[in-house]
């Protein structure tokens, strides 16, 4: 079997489909290389002294794990010198990281959740890195936080790397979704799936059920109907999965369908949700839509949401189209 590498895939996208300018190609290759380094750290576990918490909190008041910090540093270090970026933003940094003056500035901006699913690090369950690429619009010199506040539909590329039984990179440049598997012997990313499609229907939902009593009525209605099974209004039995690593839950949905939800709840009513719009919801919504699925916040398409701040949160419902349409309709009806 002929093996297609990440480099070959990107060159072909650039040459044949005009999807990828040179700077973007370099950017994706650099992110993929950084993910290899993170994978090595993740795999070492206790042997590399990377487990456990650091003695710090991020801007969102969450205790940082050692691997959150290591992964963030790896991504920054790998990306700042190439000349392809103007600035970066991360879950683990209060404000944006502008490319230092000693390096040329490029036209792209990279956003990431360096290590997603942090609560799973110490229990050896799959975790990942999520990234989103925006282009700096306008020709003004310099870059500010405002440049990052673009709706997700303007993403130039998005993807994630999952550190699981296999290390895989799942990517979209706006021309479908593809997956590469890391070949540890050769160190290269090999294309293992092209044109990933999410089935329109599903019998599998993913949500943290322990929050049920705090949900809004449309959310409860949707899940209660799933739980009612064959003799309920849906007329079929559902299965439930919740890994608590968004990367892993979304990966399962890309592979075999399903719906993933992290809705608003009434404990902190002013917070629109738990997940962050710019570096969690947007890249996943881009991937899911490119695979034929849907992604909303219950009211509108996630990719249409205009962000007001860097670490903005959002409700997330994504995956198999018919289920996302249904839960979204329930929310819209009650408005
Ligand atoms: P992170 O580790 O980057 O903070 O993200 C964790 C997120 C997401 O990966 C997951 O779906 C969700 O939080 C899990 O939340 P619960 O612990 O509430 O289940
Ligand atoms: Mn996360
Ligand atoms: Mn994280």
From TrEMBL:
Binds 2 magnesium ions per subunit. It comes from the Bacteria. Substrate binds at residues 116-119, 208, 274. The keyword Transcription does not apply. It catalyses: beta-D-fructose 1,6-bisphosphate + H2O = beta-D-fructose 6-phosphate + phosphate. Its EC number is 3.1.3.11. InterPro entries: FBPase_C_dom, FBPase_class-1, FBPase_N, FBPtase, Fructose_bisphosphatase_AS. Mg(2+) 2 binds at residues 113, 116, 280. It is an enzyme of class 3 (hydrolase). Pathway: Carbohydrate biosynthesis; Calvin cycle. Residues 198-332 form the Fructose-1-6-bisphosphatase class 1 C-terminal domain. GO terms for molecular function: fructose 1,6-bisphosphate 1-phosphatase activity. Keywords: Carbohydrate metabolism, Cytoplasm, Hydrolase, Magnesium, Metal-binding. The keyword Magnesium applies. Residues 5-193 form the Fructose-1-6-bisphosphatase class I N-terminal domain. Mg(2+) 1 binds at residues 91, 113, 115. Its cofactor is Mg(2+). It is found in: Cytoplasm. Belongs to the FBPase class 1 family. Homotetramer. This is Fructose-1,6-bisphosphatase class 1. It comes from Rubrivivax benzoatilyticus.
